[in-house]
Amino acid sequence: xxxxxxxxxEDELVTRNTLRSIFEAEGYVVHEAxxxxxxxxxxxxxxxxxxxxxxxxxxxxxxxxxxELREKDNIALIFLTGRDNEVDKxxxxxxxxxxxxxxxxxxxxxxxxxxxLLGRTRTPVEDKQPSMVERYLFNDWVLDVNSRSLxxxxxxSFKLPRSEFRAMIEFLEHPGKILTRNxxxxxxxxxxxxxxxxxxxxxxxxxxxxxxxxPGSSEIITTIHGEGYRFCGKLTSE
Length: 238
Ligand code: CA
Description:
Rossmann fold; 2 domains; 8 helices
């Protein structure tokens, strides 16, 4: 099996060195970037499958870089953040980070999250289903598995970040079933739910935003109060 390539985007040398030794010890090939420019250059050169990114960077900050990244790519992304109010920004801006971790971080927690996100141990949901379903059709919408795109009844196409894509697959594989926040988080990021974790709710809100732009689609994912979420769409075959 090939070692996954990971890119650390962080301007603090000490943190970068710490991260490098943590991930090298786990068998990753580690690349380092000091800022967004270096990040983009490395992304063009190396087969990077995961980015660990600080928010406060020289030049464009991490939030801006993540937004640009999302416009062209579905690469897995974990944010490093120093402050709690940055967590709000990450979730509030809805840029589709797959996960975040606060400094000072626990090396073990970080590597577990990275591994889970890359799907190497628990393989929460493979990004391509073993059933080889390529397209899910429901309520005039399509989820295209290969391009990870959600296509609206008017043929608008939204490329979903990994967390939203994995949540949609889980819903479509379990129509009508109530999925708890813990179920969904595990599938999305491979980690267990902790108190006050709003990652799932924010991700569902982002998914719903796509549906809400079309009449009759707002009830596709419903909230089951105190329990979780349920896919109430109608699946059809090609
Ligand atoms: Ca920094």
